[in-house]
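Customer ticket, subject: "Can you confirm the structure for Response regulator?"

Message body: Hello, I'm evaluating your service for our small team and ran a test protein. I'd like someone to confirm that this is what the system normally returns, since I don't have a reference to compare against.
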Amino acid sequence: MKNDKTILIIDDDSKNIFALNAVLKARKYDCVSANSAGVGLEMLKQNKNIAIVLMDMMMPEMDGYEAIRAMKNDKALKEIPVIAITAQAMTGDREKCLQAGADGYVSKPVDISELVKLLDLLI
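Agent reply: Thanks for trying us out. I re-ran your input and got the following:
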């Protein structure tokens, strides 16, 4: 492993989780995943090895914006960096993600070299 820290991938689309997981594991990152923001928040509370979160912003029930705000309002979770991942690459989306509390932003399809640079910077 690149380090003893774990990346949590939160996305409601299993194909996105599978693809990110495969690419990151090939680069020696340790990954776990959740298929909803609620499950992801519970995993964060239980797994102290999670060093960073890759958060899909468009999910049913609780979207990524709401989940990031919940993390940043929780004393135990607020220091964990979040990279927002969204298919919405419209003007203002990056700013909206950062205003919600994200520490970084990548659009889909994910540029893996850009993502790895962000991971290395934030972990």
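A couple of notes from the result: The two ends are 13 Å apart (CA to CA). Residues 1-65+76-85+104-109 form a domain with the Rossmann fold fold (CATH 3.40.50.2300). Feel free to reply with more questions.
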